[in-house]
Design a protein that fits this description.
Blueprint: H1 4-14, E1 25-26, H2 28-39, H3 45-48, H4 53-62, E2 64-65, E3 79-85, E4 94-96, H5 99-106, E5 111-119, E6 126-135
Antiparallel strand pairs: 1-6, 2-3, 3-4, 3-5, 5-6
The chain binds zinc ion.
Zinc ion binds at residues 70, 72-73, 75, 120, 122-123, 125.
Length: 140
Amino acid sequence: MKSQRSDLAAVKRSGRVDSMPAAPVDYRIARNATVKAWKDKQLGRLEVCDAQRELRRNAEFCGAETDRDCPVCTVEGLVEVTYVFGPYLPKHGRCVTTRKEMQRLQQRRSVSTGYVVEVCLECGWNHLIRRYTMGGAKAG
Ligand SMILES: [Zn+2]
């Protein structure tokens, strides 16, 4: 079985994200590299804690709280926000808030892509965590 780690390596090698198969892509390695760059002072705090107002607002009102701590300010309870892009969805994506809405997207015939971003409401840390496709249900 192919691991998610090798999927990510394949993306990095080819540089062609859009032609990847529908397997979920885990961005933990990239995230950890960003955290390390901040700890090594290669990136400033403002560069890693740059959540924009819209993202913060979505995190606050429609995010799902996790049990993970912020890697920057160590506050508990990072929030995950899921944006879905695809046919019949707004160009800037839809912030999916409920399991029911997610299930509806899963059952569609058209394929959409979900992007999960973790956000710290305290300091503004944010990073893409994973990407996955949904939908593609067969007719009948
Ligand atoms: Zn934080």
